[in-house]
Amino acid sequence: MPVGASARFGWRCFPKDNLTNYEGRLRLQVVVRDNNVDQALRALKKKLQREGVFREMKLRNYYEKPSEKKARQKAEAVRRVRKLARKRLQREGGLPAPAARPARP
Predict the structure, then answer these.
(1) What is the pTM of this model?
(2) Neighbours of 64 (CB within 10 A)
């Protein structure tokens, strides 16, 4: 006897974290406290930003040739490696830490 979708994908199947995989899609969960929708919307935007959803949407707006995609990914990897090396040098004392930004008013 086949199991219904509600039984297979019911709430009990999801872990307690806010980010889960649901039928191959990403599922984000934001809690609205005290009917404060603005705060929940800000939290949702921050989670989407962290997951790279906006960046991916931007990339999917137009077709990217495979050669351009490969070049972009390579450039991103080089940037990532350089950033990690810079952070490592700062931790070890080889480079001075970046100046702190002034606080917003």
Answers:
(1) 0.54
(2) 13
